[in-house]
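User: Some background: our group keeps a shared notebook of sequences we're curious about, and every so often someone picks one and asks for a predicted structure to add to the entry. Today it's my turn. The entry only has the sequence so far, pasted here. Could you supply the structure so I can complete it?
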Amino acid sequence: MKQVMFIELGMGTDLHGQNITKAAVRAVQDAIHRNSMPGLRTVLPGGSLDNMKVRVKLAVPCDADKVDVEAVKAELPYGQVEVEIMPGGMITSSGIILADKDDSNDLIYVVLASVEAGY
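Assistant: Of course. Here's the predicted structure to add to the notebook entry:
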């Protein structure tokens, strides 16, 4: 990416079910769903949102190999998206195991996301 124009941070959790992709998707949603970049199109090549570069960095506490990168990318409506996964985030206890929520244990997965947009 030649020029970063926007960086937003988000946090996502999976409270029950221990699904790292669900937590990662929620972290990306948290990062982007309260933002608008109305002037970005004016600096993108060809004025097209398809030419926007998007870099997603995910800090995951475990199961990095189980993150469905395509599901994460699907949360970004425009641009050419790349996803980088690194150690981080947090695992903590929910204090309860709920079989109806597909819990295999009482762990909560917390994922952090940084979403960068530019050209």
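Suggested note for the entry: Strands lie at 4-14, 53-60, 80-87, 90-93, 107-118. The longest helix spans residues 20-32.
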